[in-house]
Request: fold
Amino acid sequence: MSVQGPQQVLELAKVSRAFGEGATAVAALRDVDLTISAGEFVAVMGPSGSGKSSLLALAGGLDRPTSGAVFVESTPLAGLGLNELARLRRRAVGYVFQDFNLVPTLTAAENVALPLELDGTGAKKAHRQALDALRQVGIPELADRYMDQMSGGQQQRVAIARAIVGERRLILADEPTGALDSTTGQGVMEVLRLRADAGAAVMLVTHEARHAAWADRVVFLRDGRIVDQAAAMHDPTMLLAQAGL
Amino acid sequence: MSIRHSLLALLQDQPRYGYQLRVEFENRTGATWPLNIGQVYTTLDRLERDGLVSNEGGDGEGHVVYSITAAGKAEVQGWFAAPVERVNPPRNELAIKLALAVTLPGVDVQAIIQAQRVASIRALQDYTKARRDTAANQRSADTAWLLVLDSLIFQTEAEVRWLDLCEARMVQQAQSAGQGATRKPSTGVTVEEAAPLIADSRR
Reply:
């Protein structure tokens, strides 16, 4: 698969992240190269402590690498000041967390509109875009509900709507199905898959193989390094061979 | 896999000839287990010998049509009613391979685990995509194939979880063997993480 040209939404180039200094320093990531293109869904797997969450934090500009460079839509994050970085995060990057991080005193639509309003979009326009995002995740009828009036799966859909609102092209999801039952979890994967098919770059951190399997590419992290990648073959003959024939 | 019972079950539906039986079987199982036509004919001969099907003669186009007998119907009923027999644990090449690998010196077990993990995840990706595409078609004829795909997905997922467990166990073992040594395990799995994995507290 080609990963060149303007289609590249996220690029990590020789990224390392160490915590602490000297003899007690711990390397969370070492020389990681990773590119995610528009329309591509990449899952990152690995045991806890392998660097998955560090990778996600660096990709979204929530943390800065000790060395190496991170580019979001070709913009080097290292060159941005705090305000510019916050702005880029609000406009280009959407996060989905395990515990949703929704504001309980706001309705679903208000939660989704929040990042747009923080970014200076007028309330009316933000509301319209929020409704559109809620429609994309399949719950337009819940726009006026408060969080305690929704199930876990519905809240996670609100969280995803907040992540994709305003056509953000990079979606970062950290164990987004952690608190959900498996059927609801599959629904969340379906929404992420549809976003990727619609042109977003999606990076999912997970330890669940059945969720990683929705991705186009699965990256394995060990000790802060990428040790392997698996891309779907989509080859019926191989499918049969794998079934033991 | 019981070809004998599968063919009988299809004949219970309506009389059919050999080639039809093969096509029907593969339609309903998504061609996951292709049938050899020779196998179909041999099985039909035996079923006839055992009085479970009867030969209805030709259909005028050179096909020999078979129909199920009362004894055959009873046999199918018994098959559906009984749980699938477990002949000891079925032979599992992966489990055998790892069991040998951990007992032999100089074998890089973690490399074996990782190579298998990549292959298993790849298969899981393909099954998941096939399931998504099939479900999107929303054809009622696909229901049987979806069930088979679900079964493959669950089996493969179980394999990956088992590989994670094997790896965590190896790390635990290496750590208790090398107590006091400062060497960090190459997987980065700590004992605290390995413990819940082994207790299998995850869903």
Remarks:
- Chain A touches chain B through 38 residues (CB under 8 Å).
- The longest strand of chain A covers residues 8-19.
- The first helix of chain A runs from residue 52 to 59.
